[in-house]
């Protein structure tokens, strides 16, 4: 007979949603999966997070029950592990405060449940910006423990590079403030080590300051969109790489590749210039127009927060995309041909190439748990998840072409994939931290270290 759940502590009763509750359908899912948890806790305070962690740990230990505990911030994790079946979902979306602590020092405290679009909206009038992903509905929690590649990546680096401190609740229910002085190893681990070490409830960020300009925008960007038709993909990719690498770090570029007619490839370049429209930005964008046969091109100046806008779209588990990726230093002719082969399948949604380098490559590989500071391009492969087996087989050769994988941009939770996310010394250090802070393996709804 199925064991009944023990009574919830009093502090959680008003924030718990059980399957029979009319709100259950609104909180059970993330972007990729419809969950069937036994209970969802809509935590509003750190005390409730502590009580929820203790409750889940007690059930796992004393009742010898498999009671998975998922942590959900924005619900946009590609792994879909922020909801589960038969366990608890600790939903932090109500903990979404964004507070500018010290404008002069650019210190901003953000609770894990805030969305990046709302962060941009709050910071922009103050000329402040934190490099994040480019989708406004992704959550602060998931991104700030794993990576964070956005449209200002080459100007300001990864999101995890901007974390100056954090509050984390570990599996024993203890609250820790971590930064360079306090528990520096744990601080190192939560910046790229994913959610294996505990629940981060809030982050202290060191934001960047945008210099006021004449345009009237507080954090100005210029977005160029260029549609190309390509006959020879290797030469085009090589020219694109050379172009962004020799341009300013104010430029971040994303290429979206798809199969076109008659063996051609269609590519859309999305180029982001941090700053006002200027002779420098126009010169760089003019060069983008010479990379291949241009079908259409446009440029638009705008506010950063208007691009990274939160839509607050309800999470219903309907996203059918499955993503894989590899981080590379260079795309050789051989690799470009393999990319072309990936595109030639009906289930593919496209291949995305993201420019790295610039500020991402400034810190040393020991700065935080992101080891890939030499790589210059991320190759991301998107396809229909119903064809995961076939598509994963096709992507397999790419593992030898690159040096690592961005874990939060991959839907593949297998141990083979995880071995490419963290390697060598970083992997060992994370495993040791995981053993120390989660000895009974409470936080299993994530990559297994
Ligand atoms: C449409 C879309 C666009 C995206 N665009 C980008 C992009 O431009 N750049 C980019 O870098 N990524 C991008 N991603 C990937 C996404 O940002 C990451 O997967 C990120 O982890 C999602 O964070 P979340 O809080 O929304 O996820 P959630 O689903 O809530 O969480 C994902 C996992 O992170 C861990 N976690 C979440 N919150 C916490 C916490 N508070 N403490 C500890 N662990 C936690 C948990 O293990 C959880 O299972 C995109 C994803 C989608 C679906």
UniProtKB/TrEMBL annotation:
One family name in Pfam for this protein = FAD_binding_4
- What InterPro entries does the database record attribute to this sequence? FAD-bd_PCMH (IPR016166), FAD-bd_PCMH-like_sf (IPR036318), FAD-bd_PCMH_sub1 (IPR016167), FAD-bd_PCMH_sub2 (IPR016169), FAD-linked_Oxidoreductase (IPR050416), Oxid_FAD_bind_N (IPR006094)
FAD-binding PCMH-type domain ranges (all copies):
33-210
Report which superkingdom the organism of origin falls in.
Bacteria
**Cofactor requirement:** FAD
Give the UniProt keywords, A-Z.
Answer: FAD, Flavoprotein, Oxidoreductase
The UniProt similarity line reads: Belongs to the oxygen-dependent FAD-linked oxidoreductase family.
Entries under PANTHER family matching the protein: BINDING OXIDOREDUCTASE, PUTATIVE (AFU_ORTHOLOGUE AFUA_1G17690)-RELATED, FAD-BINDING PCMH-TYPE DOMAIN-CONTAINING PROTEIN
Report what the protein is called.
FAD-binding PCMH-type domain-containing protein
What's the source species for this entry? Answer: Candidatus Enterococcus ferrettii
């Amino acid at each position: 007979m199925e064991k009944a759940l023990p009574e919830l502590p009093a502090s959680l009763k008003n924030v718990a949603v059980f399957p029979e509750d009319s709100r259950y359908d609104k909180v059970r899912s993330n972007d990729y999966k419809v969950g069937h948890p036994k209970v969802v806790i809509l935590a509003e305070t750190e005390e409730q997070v502590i009580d929820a962690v203790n409750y889940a740990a007690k059930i796992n230990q004393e009742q010898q029950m498999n009671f998975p505990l998922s942590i959900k911030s924005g619900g946009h994790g590609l792994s879909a592990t922020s909801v589960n079946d038969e366990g608890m979902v600790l939903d932090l979306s109500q903990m979404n405060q964004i507070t500018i602590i010290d404008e002069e020092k650019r210190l901003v405290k953000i609770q894990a449940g805030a969305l990046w679009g709302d962060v941009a909206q709050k910071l922009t009038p103050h000329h402040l910006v934190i490099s994040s992903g480019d989708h406004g509905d992704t959550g602060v929690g998931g991104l700030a423990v794993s990576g964070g590649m956005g449209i200002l990546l080459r100007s300001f680096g990864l999101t995890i590079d901007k974390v100056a401190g954090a509050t984390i609740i570990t599996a024993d229910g203890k609250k820790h403030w971590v930064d360079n002085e306090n528990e520096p190893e744990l601080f190192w681990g939560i910046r790229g080590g994913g959610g294996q070490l505990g629940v981060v409830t809030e982050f202290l960020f060191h934001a960047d300051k945008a210099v006021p300009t004449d345009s009237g925008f507080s954090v100005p960007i210029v977005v160029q969109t260029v549609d190309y038709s390509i006959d020879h993909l290797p030469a085009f990719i090589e020219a694109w790489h050379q172009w962004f690498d020799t341009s300013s770090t104010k430029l971040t570029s994303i290429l979206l590749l798809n199969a076109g007619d008659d063996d051609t490839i269609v590519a859309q370049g999305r180029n982001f210039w941090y700053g006002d429209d200027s002779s420098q930005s126009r010169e760089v964008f003019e060069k983008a127009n010479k990379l291949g046969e241009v079908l259409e091109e446009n440029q638009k100046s705008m506010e950063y927060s208007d691009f990274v806008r939160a839509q607050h779209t309800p999470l219903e588990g309907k996203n059918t995309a499955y993503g894989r990726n590899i981080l590379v230093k260079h795309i050789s002719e051989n690799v470009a041909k393999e990319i072309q082969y990936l595109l030639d399948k009906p289930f593919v949604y496209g291949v995305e190439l993201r420019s790295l380098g610039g500020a991402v490559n400034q810190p040393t590989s020991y700065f935080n748990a992101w080891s890939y500071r030499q790589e210059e391009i991320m190759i991301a492969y998107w396809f229909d998840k119903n064809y995961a087996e076939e598509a994963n087989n096709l992507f397999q050769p790419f593992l030898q072409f690159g040096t690592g994988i961005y874990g939060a941009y991959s839907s593949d939770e297998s141990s083979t994939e995880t071995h490419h996310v963290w390697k060598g010394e970083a992997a060992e250090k994370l495993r040791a931290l995981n053993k120390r802070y989660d000895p009974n393996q409470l936080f299993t709804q994530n990559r297994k270290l």
